[in-house]
Amino acid sequence: MSDKLNIAIDGPASSGKSTVAKIIAKDLNYIYTDTGAMYRSVTYLALKYQVDFADEKALVELIQRYPITFKQSKEGQLVFVDGEDVTTAIRLPEVTQNVSQVAALKAVRQKLVQQQQVIAKAKGVVMDGRDIGTVVLPDAEVKIFLVASVDERAQRRYKENQEKGIACDYEELKEAIAKRDYYDSHRENSPLKQAKDAILIDTTGMSIPEVVLAIETIAKEKLNQG
Ligand code: DC
What we know:
Layout: E1 7-10, H1 17-28, E2 31-34, H2 35-48, H3 56-65, E3 69-73, E4 76-81, E5 84-85, H4 93-103, H5 106-120, E6 125-129, H6 132-136, E7 142-147, H7 150-164, H8 170-186, E8 199-202, H9 208-225
Parallel strand pairs: 1-6, 1-7, 2-6, 7-8
Antiparallel strand pairs: 3-4, 4-5
The structure holds 2'-deoxycytidine-5'-monophosphate.
């Protein structure tokens, strides 16, 4: 086995996936891939070019025409598409409200999954999303399924938005998270679900360092098993 492995982290919205995935990638010197940012970027492009969220063919054309790239910077990972830094724009409510619809489309998923598999080919990737352990990287050596109560997740997202200067209402946020979870878990194509061999971690009441330590311990055990 190579000295690097792939770590798949799935879970519902705001379960802490990206926060812990980023820290783990840094600690292990791995590449972090935020697949949610890819679905968000396609949604952003659809808004920009006024493409209907149900027009699968036109959305696939957008993906082909405008490759999504990630760049490391001092401020963290940046997302670029169509020559623009969209890191902040893809978190705006307009994108968040519509991304589930775009992410439910089979052809869109196929295109983005292909790109995600290429990124993970050389191993040493921490990838977070909804279908990483089930569809994108079914052979990932470490699979984690992170969950947390809706209340705790809404509080986290609220704080995150405040820090980024994005105005939002707590109750609305909670409702939107619950709605998105329902939609993401009940869609026909690659719904959010725990892979059979994924380890479930309920992060309600856990600190970020505690979650990071739990996952890194699992990864180290896997590496030692060789
Ligand atoms: O993790 P996030 O909130 O940035 O994800 C945005 C949306 O993209 C979310 O509604 C579910 C969808 N998504 C998906 O369907 N599959 C993934 N691998 C990642 C995200």
